[in-house]
Write a structure and sequence with these properties.
By secondary structure, this protein is mainly alpha-helical. The chain contains 8 helices and no strands. The longest helix has 29 residues.
């Protein structure tokens, strides 16, 4: 997968604003929770929603800044964006469908992080065409980050007894834990498959000339080879 043309500066402004706004919400929620929960950033970002929202915001701001500078989006950043969207879909589905209304944050914060932000990311992914189709052979990319997060959480559950979600408590038993983890990874693969499929939708917001430029770039090696072949 190669780099993709940048979206318009207007899209860049929206992305930087959205990413910066979510980071601001996370910081605000952390500060107001200190009197009740202490000042542990490790615990605060041990929640999948908080950590994923932070990392996704960073990816969104990075792509937005590239758009503002009219720079192409490199392939690793496109992949990171795809993984971030897939993970945020899980955040939205779990909160709004499976366990609606859970959490101790103010209602508007929960709506912003669990509903508005995931919806915005999906719309951005579908409608803005500054991403190349994701190769299916790289669908596995959706797994490393959640695996690392889960590994750290399970180690903490055994060592200091802290877990962000009740279904990850060690005392619930190995069978319950295994089923929940298997369900989580199955949902991630399904979400990733959706994001990978949507990457093939033709989006808007990129210059029309990008297709012509891509075609010329692809044809360039053949033209060079033909020119070399005609030289004496």
């Amino acid at each position: 997968m190669t780099s993709s043309p940048s979206a318009s500066p207007a899209i860049g402004i929206l992305r930087v604003s959205a990413g910066g706004g979510v980071i601001g919400i996370l910081l605000f929620t952390y500060v107001i929770g200190i009197p009740r929960q202490g000042a542990s950033l490790v615990d605060y970002f041990g929640y999948f929603t908080n950590l994923t929202s932070l990392l996704t915001s960073g990816v969104l701001v990075a792509t937005g800044l590239l758009s503002l500078r009219r720079r192409s989006i490199p392939a690793p950043l496109i992949s990171a964006r795809a993984v971030a969207v897939a993970c945020m879909i899980i955040v939205g589905v779990v909160y709004n469908v499976l366990v609606p209304g859970t959490g101790s944050a103010p209602a508007w914060v929960s709506v912003a992080l669990h509903t508005l932000f995931p919806v915005l990311l999906v719309l951005d992914w579908v409608l803005v065409g500054d991403r190349a189709p994701m190769p299916w052979r790289r669908l596995w990319l959706v797994l490393p980050y959640p695996v690392i997060w889960l590994g750290v959480v399970l180690v903490r559950g055994v060592t200091d007894g802290w877990v962000p979600y009740g279904f990850l408590l060690p005392d619930r038993g190995v069978m319950s834990l295994t089923l929940h983890v298997a369900g989580l990874f199955a949902a991630l693969l399904a979400s990733g498959s959706l994001v990978w499929a949507l990457s093939r939708v033709r989006g808007f917001g990129t210059p029309r000339r990008s297709e012509e430029a891509d075609a010329q770039a692809l044809a360039q090696p053949y033209r060079r080879a033909s020119a070399d072949a005609t030289r004496p």
